[in-house]
Amino acid sequence: MHTHATAAAISLYAPKLWSVEETLELFEKPFMDLLWHAQQVHREHFDANRVQRSALFSIKTGGCSEDCKYCSQSARHDTVVEREPLKPLPVVLAAARAAKEKGASRFCMGAAWRNPKDKDLDAVIEMVSAVKALGLETCLTLGMLKPGQAERLKEAGLDFYNHNLDTAPEYYAEIVSTHCYQDRLDTIDQVRAAGIRICSGGIVGMGETRRHRAGLLVQFANMLTPPASLPINHLVAIPGSPFAQLPKLDNFEFIRTIAVARILMPKSFVRLSAGRQEMSDEQQALCFLAGANSVFYGDEMLTTENSAPARDDALFARLGISAN
Ligand code: SAM
Ligand code: DTB
Ligand code: SF4
Questions:
Q1: pLDDT, mean of residues 134-153
Q2: Number of folded domains in the chain?
């Protein structure tokens, strides 16, 4: 009796752990059933007609020491991206003001670093305080953090830190050789411990299998607190990068990935991220139906074009979706 009572208590209070196998079963559902399931979970936790919008801005572009095969900013690939130093504060502030005027609620600043040096962090901290003072939420993506750095960012008022796991653990070595999966997990732990909300997701369309896509989502779903924001990127094939020639993932498989993310992580903002420019309005609408409820909004991603804001405005109006 006693053991049973303990078991009941555990099943009541322990968060559900997802296995790759049961996640694959979700992927395998008939498409209509999967979308219906995801939409029900979505409506339990969110207004289904609202999509949050974040603006992206590259504060330091190109010349990165890492060899991520998908990336335009690695110094090891011959892409058109030119190396640029850290942008001065007034330039960043002007971009943040413009983003706010356009209707973004969060401003995400990205740097092509393996990790920031303490001196870099001083400059970035000024940016965070100044952008926050405009009344925007702030997000940074600067690479790996060492102990103490996340705390400094928290003190500056940083709301979110983006650090993607990008793919399943067993596929990561096919994507990057200059750092490992555990490095990514360690940085996410530092961010969480400092009390900054986590934005972490991945890329699909990198030649991974469905099992890898399931494996990536399981990593997040089984965290004690899954990421508040979960970007799902479709690979933007960058000329000159090792992934320049990869075929596009099937559109329905992309939508399935969004739906499974929504079911595994009912409370996370699932972000329809890179690759949106290539998607039809109808595909985006199906992604929103599958539970995506945030996007990157603005003319540019970090180094590539984003879906044009005028197109997004028109799409949201046609769908009766409101922002923020
Ligand atoms: N250097 C930092 C890092 O790696 O975390 C921050 C910037 S990095 C460009 C941020 C994320 O952008 C990557 O983790 C990846 O998920 C996404 N990304 C970069 N290039 C991409 C591409 N060509 N297609 C899709 N997503 C991409
Ligand atoms: C994320 O998951 N996607 C954004 C943001 N986090 C930093 C970046 C996408 C980059 C797409 C390719 C480029 O523009 O360089
Ligand atoms: Fe550098 Fe980040 Fe690009 Fe990797 S993804 S090459 S770490 S900028």
A1: 96
A2: 1
